[in-house]
Amino acid sequence: MERTFLAIKPDGVQRGLVGEIIRRFETKGFTLVGLKFLKPSRELAEAHYDVHRERPFFAGLVEFITSGPVVAMVWEGDGVIASARKIIGATNPLNAEPGTIRGDFGVNIGRNIIHGSDAPETAQKEVSLWFKEDELVDWQPDI
Ligand code: CMP
């Protein structure tokens, strides 16, 4: 079964959007298999955003993601990687469709509320970076 990594960023937490965001993935029908609330270390943030290391916004991005607690999650389900990206919306909230998380709640690319893995390889890398294997719960809803 496919898994993806999602993180509600410090702006999403500070704006009280945690429940609303989790609700969207639950009601869609995906299964939560990992959940933790933490203030990421600089080391974790730099490893997570390693692909952006040469970008001009890298330092600010790491600064921001380490500035407060985030909700790190692993969700499971058929097609969950691509579907979660649709539910989240375009990277720049100004381009995100209404009805998506970023389209409904954001206006700033540097404060875009939530991160979602963009492909199977990234999902695998991000899940193992943020979670140990024994922190993930192997279960299926009985419905
Ligand atoms: P995310 O999905 O977490 O992946 C990389 C992040 O970099 C992205 O969301 C944005 O928050 C951030 N980002 C991308 N482009 C820019 C930019 N031009 N300026 C500031 N932040 C950016």
Automatic annotation (TrEMBL):
<keyword id="KW-0479">Metal-binding</keyword>
<keyword id="KW-0597">Phosphoprotein</keyword>
<dbReference type="GO" id="GO:0006183">
    <property type="term" value="P:GTP biosynthetic process"/>
</dbReference>
<feature type="binding site">
    <location>
        <position position="112"/>
    </location>
    <ligand>
        <name>ATP</name>
    </ligand>
</feature>
<feature type="binding site">
    <location>
        <position position="85"/>
    </location>
    <ligand>
        <name>ATP</name>
    </ligand>
</feature>
<feature type="binding site">
    <location>
        <position position="9"/>
    </location>
    <ligand>
        <name>ATP</name>
    </ligand>
</feature>
<dbReference type="Pfam" id="PF00334">
    <property type="entry name" value="NDK"/>
</dbReference>
<protein>
    <recommendedName>
        <fullName>Nucleoside diphosphate kinase</fullName>
        <ecNumber>2.7.4.6</ecNumber>
    </recommendedName>
</protein>
<dbReference type="InterPro" id="IPR034907">
    <property type="entry name" value="NDK-like_dom"/>
</dbReference>
<feature type="active site" description="Pros-phosphohistidine intermediate">
    <location>
        <position position="115"/>
    </location>
</feature>
<comment type="function">
    <text>(Microbial infection) Catalyzes the phosphorylation of dZDP to dZTP, when the bacterium is infected by a phage that produces the substrate for the synthesis of dZTP (2- amino-2'-deoxyadenosine 5'-triphosphate), which is then used by the phage as a DNA polymerase substrate.</text>
</comment>
<keyword id="KW-0067">ATP-binding</keyword>
<dbReference type="GO" id="GO:0004550">
    <property type="term" value="F:nucleoside diphosphate kinase activity"/>
</dbReference>
<comment type="similarity">
    <text>Belongs to the NDK family.</text>
</comment>
<dbReference type="InterPro" id="IPR001564">
    <property type="entry name" value="Nucleoside_diP_kinase"/>
</dbReference>
<feature type="binding site">
    <location>
        <position position="91"/>
    </location>
    <ligand>
        <name>ATP</name>
    </ligand>
</feature>
<feature type="binding site">
    <location>
        <position position="102"/>
    </location>
    <ligand>
        <name>ATP</name>
    </ligand>
</feature>
<comment type="function">
    <text>Major role in the synthesis of nucleoside triphosphates other than ATP. The ATP gamma phosphate is transferred to the NDP beta phosphate via a ping-pong mechanism, using a phosphorylated active-site intermediate.</text>
</comment>
<dbReference type="GO" id="GO:0005737">
    <property type="term" value="C:cytoplasm"/>
</dbReference>
<keyword id="KW-0963">Cytoplasm</keyword>
<keyword id="KW-0546">Nucleotide metabolism</keyword>
<feature type="binding site">
    <location>
        <position position="57"/>
    </location>
    <ligand>
        <name>ATP</name>
    </ligand>
</feature>
<keyword id="KW-0808">Transferase</keyword>
<dbReference type="GO" id="GO:0006241">
    <property type="term" value="P:CTP biosynthetic process"/>
</dbReference>
<comment type="subunit">
    <text>Homotetramer.</text>
</comment>
<dbReference type="GO" id="GO:0046872">
    <property type="term" value="F:metal ion binding"/>
</dbReference>
<keyword id="KW-0460">Magnesium</keyword>
<dbReference type="InterPro" id="IPR023005">
    <property type="entry name" value="Nucleoside_diP_kinase_AS"/>
</dbReference>
<dbReference type="GO" id="GO:0006228">
    <property type="term" value="P:UTP biosynthetic process"/>
</dbReference>
<dbReference type="InterPro" id="IPR036850">
    <property type="entry name" value="NDK-like_dom_sf"/>
</dbReference>
<dbReference type="GO" id="GO:0005524">
    <property type="term" value="F:ATP binding"/>
</dbReference>
<keyword id="KW-0547">Nucleotide-binding</keyword>
<feature type="domain" description="Nucleoside diphosphate kinase-like">
    <location>
        <begin position="1"/>
        <end position="138"/>
    </location>
</feature>
<keyword id="KW-0418">Kinase</keyword>
